[in-house]
Amino acid sequence: MAREPGMSVIDGAGIDGGEHIVAAENLVKTYQQGRTEIKALDGVSVGFAPARFTAIAGPSGSGKSTLMHCLAGLDTATSGRITLGGTELTGLSDRELTRVRRDKVGFVFQSFNLLPQLTALENIALPVTMAGRRTDHDLLQHIVGLLGIGNRLSHRPSELSGGQQQRVALARALVARPAVVFADEPTGNLDSQSGTEVLDFLRRSVQDLGQTVIMVTHDPGAAAYADRVLILADGRVVEDLATSGTDITRAMQVRRSNR
């Protein structure tokens, strides 16, 4: 369904709770580039239901990565409100944001971001260890089994392929039972087969584990794995689509050609 620029795409409960695990209201993010003010986000309002897979798509410069960074507490908005897992992020200190990210967010990055001196198993358990919590070994073994990396747990990142490293990163993101997993171009450094395996697992984590996943991508093929696709252009949500029966490639191409 298309949206007029600036219109809210929150349906159902508002930002203060209800059915959204993450929500943003009238989000604005500006940057100063010399004497020019760049508006990366222009009044974005959007809510994300739990146990759903949402793709945030759009061309380079559309604001999709900025939106994800603000939703995840990696960056602060110029104005507007965000709630994540029942916590309002607006006005939190850096220390408080770090605690929210540690306790409520899992991350999967294009560049894997594994610590090279640690084994795969140590990398996977790291978020739980840093939070001072006990690792749920049954869950860890279940996730490792789903990802097919049980025989690679003693290996360091340099001994793993790109696809294996990303699967370790996926396990690390999930083992702490986060409210939300944010995936930033998770297939960007992978070959097509490894990329498909990663997307399949993100899909399964929603279906089998009840995980909420929000993924940023410029790839229509990757976006098609999601339940829902938000298309951004010029810092605004211009399309809010259910993937079933929708030509995501065409929708993204139309928006790109209309810029």
TrEMBL record:
GO terms for molecular function: ATP binding; ATP hydrolysis activity; transmembrane transporter activity. Residues 22-259 form the ABC transporter domain. Keywords: ATP-binding, Nucleotide-binding, Transport. The keyword Transport applies. One of its GO terms (cellular component) is membrane protein complex. It holds the Pfam family ABC_tran. The keyword Ribonucleoprotein does not apply. InterPro entries: AAA+_ATPase, ABC_transporter-like_ATP-bd, ABC_transporter-like_CS, ABC_transpr_LolD-like, MacB-like_ATP-bd, P-loop_NTPase. This is ABC transporter ATP-binding protein.
